[in-house]
Amino acid sequence: MKSVSLFLAAASFAYTSAFTLPSNNNGGRTVVSLDMASAIVFGTSTGSTETIADYLKESLPEVEGPFDVETIEGSVKDFFEKYDSLIVGTPTWNTGSDTERSGTGWDEIYYGEMQEMNMQGKKVAVFGLGDQSSYAENYADASGELHDVFEALGCVMMGYTSQEGYEHEDSKAIRGDKFCGLLCDEVNQEDLSAERAEAWVAQLKAEGFFEGGSAAPAAAASPVVEVVAEPVLEFLEENSALLDEAIESHGNVGFAPHYNQKTKSTMWVSRDGRSCYYTGGSVATKASSSSP
Ligand SMILES: Cc1cc2nc3c(=O)[nH]c(=O)nc-3n(C[C@H](O)[C@H](O)[C@H](O)COP(=O)(O)O)c2cc1C
């Protein structure tokens, strides 16, 4: 009875997420849901990365910051852990080095204080600055390091972008065939930065970056329904079929995992942030046998 009840709770949540497309439009203006805490944090030596952070903030007034990483007071761990999603930015300096390439306060905390943080499942998007002409072989390398530090802490990395429109030859910020975030070049393509930042914010919203931070625990903790009557079983059957259809139509491709430590379950969210399903833990959903 209990497992059927749990399945019902999960299935009805998954059904809602998968088939009720959340509308973020408010009279034509896209707004960010405030059900999760987000912040912009950057490092900078000469101010260009802060310029991009300011562009991002213009499109994201609801998000906290931008904060210069060097001005964080007290515990770095406490500071970062209070956010559900983070937009983090860095320039690239120190061309000859393998690590600590930002030339900013990030380098001081990457392999020290940040390693103490519990960041599992938090959404993180990286933006980076560089000079693609003078440093064509190393364009915005340090963005790759920033990306990897957060990824290694268990964060869900989002906001990858195309390399088209840049003239670099190589970069340590490339993952697959994409940049691991938004890259800007205030030296050679200053006039493109504002529109690149705006387009990237739209991409993050479409990816669901600002949504669903607290949705998984709430769904897992749904009250147990004690009575499983005939109509309920029909409902279950119907929605299980719909879930299967949704998973099939997405081909299990492009879903990003969000692990919930409390429930030991994983919420798989589609790239557009409009569909999700669960695997593992106590939330035994129909989807678990079709995980990607
Ligand atoms: C000494 C020096 C080294 C640099 N190394 C790189 C590099 O390896 N890769 C790159 O893309 N840009 C490099 N740059 C360019 C900076 O990353 C770029 O000017 C950036 O906009 C600086 O950002 P900030 O003003 O936020 O510090 C370098 C610049 C200087 C002066």
UniProtKB/TrEMBL annotation:
Residues 38-205 form the Flavodoxin-like domain. SUPFAM superfamilies: Flavoproteins. Its cofactor is FMN. Keywords: Electron transport, Flavoprotein, FMN, Nitrogen fixation, Signal, Transport. Residues 1-18 form the signal peptide. One of its GO terms (molecular function) is FMN binding. NCBIfam families: flav_long, PRK09267.1-4. Belongs to the flavodoxin family. This is Flavodoxin-like domain-containing protein. It comes from Cylindrotheca closterium.
